[in-house]
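Let us practice reading a record.
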Amino acid sequence: MALAIESRDILFGLIPYLISIHTLFRNRHSIVFLVDGIPIRVFTNKEENGVLFQKNQPMSIQGSVWNANDWATQGGIVKTNWSHASFISTFRSFIIVACELLPETDDTMAQCGKLGQFWWDKPSFSGLNRHRSHQLKWIRRKHLVYDFCKDTARFTELPRECIS
């Protein structure tokens, strides 16, 4: 089954392995989605272009299934086979490494805001290294199903997050 996910969130359909490890890495520079250690989507912080970036908000995990046959399936060519329902997602074995907010404070910046305070905010984590960049290019070349940044039928003007 191809997993088609709108590119504002994850960018493309990827045929997932039956057993895989999904990782979300988030810091001030980017949000990186990885499957089995391979980056499948990078959402770069483009606040200077007016694009909202989730850097101070608490995170949560949610899952859903929706019908995106008209846009996320190679322009409607490949339809979802609903006879394979019910679709089941299982979340387990969470390992969270983060700046934990104490319940008595709402001041995220005071508690977690010092730049470079944590290992994930160090300069070496400001982007993908050469190997991971090559992996991402390979994944996009082999498995990209839909890229909303190239969807001129849906968007007459390129969304801000698509601008380099």
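A brief commentary: The chain has two helices and three strands.
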